[in-house]
Amino acid sequence: MENSADSNGSDDAFPPEKRLEAPNYRLIKAGIATISDMETLRECVAYENAHQNRTQILRRLQWKAEELRESEG
How many CB atoms lie within 10 A of CB 48? Predict the structure, then answer.
């Protein structure tokens, strides 16, 4: 087994549908803010594109991607 329990554990407990289908926008923002890796972010973008395709949420996800890229290098 790989040593990626942190990433896998958070993904299983908080999948894209829970992050992006919260009852209000503030909770969605909080769900996006807790994304800590590009794989989870990509899953959220794919989920949003397939289900709601909300411009405002996709923009927040784009900002989060930029933030993650900056922190990587």
Answer: 22
